[in-house]
Design goal:
Elements lengths: L18 H16 L6 E3 L7 H5 L12 H4 L2 H10 L3 E3 L6 H14 L4 E4 L13 E4 L6 E2 L1 H8 L6 H8 L14 H11 L2 H6 L6 H13 L1 H9 L27 H10 L3 H4 L84 H9 L51 H10 L3 H9 L6
Parallel strand pairs: 1-2, 3-4
Antiparallel strand pairs: 4-5
Helix pairs in contact: 1-4, 7-8, 7-11, 14-16, 15-16
């Protein structure tokens, strides 16, 4: 049973289904944000048979019946769409696609740009320079170029294409064993279905035989009738004032009616009125001279034991990766914190990616603590590369005249006769780094 206070409970089998209602709300709200429109109408299929059922008793006969949990959401969806400011239309005797086709052609004839939101590929036959189909679920956009690229034929030939291919969902027969590729090939060669039928004797093979049989039996003509959308539906009783569209002007949402609707179906986040939505507290301005972006506040004057603040910078510093942001005094301060920041060492501009090891070593290089210009088979103790000396790396020979130098880039000393050997072995990361940079001995 649904809760009398909070509405339907999520996961409770006894609660009414609301997934389709919520999905429709999301789609309608997204459309309103993404598409700027002066007129809007939401068209649904009316209950009962249509003229296509009279043409072909097996039309849509293979479809499964609508699930009960989805059927129970149809009326609430109609109510919700109306509350969101959209005109709701359902015309008996025709399908929603026929109503959409009639309104789209009527608007396009008046030079109005038309956007149809649907995932139904059958609506592609409506596309022209004024009519575009968008699919809010997949993000697909079908304009003239999009339809041609997707199906291999322009929108003007989509009725002929659908008549040849048929439709398994709606149980439209089409021509047996003629698929999208064959249909597109025939229409490209002959230009239209009528011209193709006139030259059916020239079509060879099994597909040609099936085409001629479909023509002779009337199956192809029937398929074309079933897939062709009506553009002349009588809509005056449902949308007064046509061909003017004043009756389907997009209205503002009825928030007074939406709140109880959302509460009834358990949409708590949507049901919360704007006055109850928690707003973020405004940031209190920091006292001058601290900038507004400062994050940590400190006493105006540091205690005596603290280091003196730098004379070249104010008592507020901008955030950096070397330490916390320092700001001026504030009543929110509870514990004094201050320390002078040290600049982060800048990597050498001489670093060049020759290998991952050399680049890493180069970025870690720092100026030596003392000169490192002595000569000898091993580097001095304060040399930058003593932990990775050539003498300890396989494949290197260290002449007694080698000059050791510590720089801000990876440098290793070796002889030309052994450099290639080292590059071939590369037994250690250190050897990789040195071989990547070493090109000749320095004497």
């Amino acid at each position: 049973m649904p809760c009398p206070i909070c509405g339907p409970c999520q996961g409770d089998p006894a609660s009414p289904a609301t997934g389709a209602i919520r999905g429709m709300i999301n789609m309608m709200q997204a459309l309103r944000k993404e598409v700027v429109a002066d007129y809007a109408v939401c068209v649904f299929d009316a209950s009962g048979p249509t003229f296509r059922d009279a043409l072909y008793t097996e039309y849509k006969a293979t479809r499964s019946p609508m699930p009960d949990d989805l059927r129970s959401q149809i009326e609430p969806i109609h109510e919700m769409v109306d509350l969101l400011g959209w005109k709701v239309v359902a015309v008996p005797g025709v399908e929603a696609d026929d109503v959409i086709a009639t309104l789209a052609h009527m608007a396009a004839a008046q030079g109005i740009e038309v956007i149809v939101s649907s995932g139904d590929k059958d609506l592609s036959q409506l596309v022209n320079e004024h009519i575009t189909i968008i699919d809010t679920m997949s993000g697909k956009r079908r304009d003239v170029a999009g339809v041609t690229a997707e199906f291999g034929v322009p929108p003007a030939l989509m009725v002929d294409y659908q008549a040849l291919v048929g439709d398994t969902v709606d149980n439209v027969p089409g021509v047996t064993k003629v698929g999208p590729k064959t249909a597109a090939k025939w229409l490209e060669e002959y230009g239209s279905l009528d011209n193709l039928m006139a030259n059916a004797d020239a079509i060879k093979g099994v597909a040609g035989n099936n085409l001629r049989e479909a023509i002779a039996s009337g199956q192809l003509a029937l398929s074309r009738q079933l897939v062709t959308m009506k553009t002349d539906c009588a809509l005056a009783d449902y949308i007064p004032g046509l061909p003017a569209f004043d009756d389907i002007t997009l209205d503002a949402p009825d928030n007074a009616g939406l709140l109880p609707f959302y509460e009834k179906y358990g949409f708590k986040g949507l049901a919360m009125p704007p006055s109850r939505v928690q707003q973020p507290r405004p940031l209190q301005p920091l006292p001058s001279p601290c900038p507004a972006k400062a994050a940590i506040c400190l006493p105006t004057t540091p205690p005596a034991p603290w280091p003196k603040k730098p004379s070249t910078a104010p008592w507020c510093t901008t955030p950096s990766s070397t330490g916390p942001t320092l700001t001026s005094g504030s009543s929110a301060c509870r514990k004094p914190r201050w320390q002078p920041s040290t600049p982060k060492p800048t990597p050498s501009t001489k670093c060049v990616r020759k290998s991952s090891a050399s680049l890493s070593a180069c970025k870690q290089a720092r100026p030596p603590t003392s000169p490192c210009g002595t000569r000898g088979p091993t580097p001095p103790r304060n040399c930058r590369w003593m932990k990775c000396s050539p003498a300890s790396s396989p494949g290197f020979k260290t002449p007694s005249t080698t000059s050791w130098a510590s720089t801000s880039s990876t440098t290793a000393m070796c002889s030309p006769t052994t450099a290639s050997r080292c590059r071939a072995t590369r037994t250690t990361p250190c050897c990789k780094a040195m071989c990547s940079k070493c090109t000749s001995p320095t004497t």
